[in-house]
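SEQUENCE WITH STRUCTURE:
===
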Amino acid sequence: MLSNYINSDYIRAANTLAGKHARRKIVVYVESFEDVFFWSNLLRSLETPQLYFEVMLPSKTSLCKGKKIALANRLGPNMIACVDADYDYMMQGTTETSHDVCFNPYVFHTIVYAIESYYCYAPSLQNACVMATLNDRRIFDFEAFLLEFSETVWPLFVWSVWAYKYGLYKTFSLADFYKVVRLREVNLHHPEHELSALRKRVNAKVSRLQRQFPEGRKTYKPLQQQLIDLGISPAMTYLFMRGHDLQDGVVLPVAEKVCDMLRKEREREIRLLAEHDRQMQNEQAAYQHTARPIAEVIGRHGGYDECPFYAIVQQQIQQFIDKYHHFEQQTIDEEKYPKHNDATGTADVQPAGDGTAH
């Protein structure tokens, strides 16, 4: 099948057939349907008059999805992959997949665990609640809460990465980590109660792991420093735990409570201000029709593009674009002024002309 031969060179040839002045297309393979929107948004602002991106699923011949399928394509300057970092970023090439994710020049990753991590970026959550409830009152400090959450779970998070790195993830898996750190019951007026309970669970689990894996005494602290050197600070731990766990077990339980309170507040306001029952019913219906569940809004609210890691990803892709333009211009110049040798061995013969600039 022709699709079996599609690679970066094929895309470049197709670009050439479109004409010298046509915009060049770079194909971008992502892991799943959900990733298309995220990466399309991230890449759109980086496009130029000479270049644009087309984001698509990783297989042209099946519905297979995922990181391995995306990385299996024959990537190159005209065909790249954009994937979730997962724990591969922290492994820094110690596995085959990690090596591709970290060092393949045609693979770009989220840096944080996954796209869901960006959706849960603390400074953007207030805006998500506004979109869901159409009520802009601030009744909860997401940034302060997730900062303390992150610093609390940091010691156990390092153990999670340690277990993954040393092949002990079956003994202490990402699911085991999640069981400890997921929130049970958060009182919006006293979130410190749940954070205190979380701290006790984390400390107890860390103590058990220290007894279970005494060999960690020599390797735990160096790994902790390696993570910090990669930009993974205790204050940002939440962005590097598994994305779906963060969204479903930490952020949404709190955000749903916040939105429920804001929604009830707005409905009370309508009841108080309505001049008669018909107006109240109409306003209530209009409000309920416009408001949205926070779970539907969480990936569409915007604001996460202000995350510093998001900017780093864009910078990395911008560097790739700059090299792409340089290579394309170099190719054009070589085609316009080809270098060749005549019978006497003279090189770099320029095309004939009158020397007049055009």
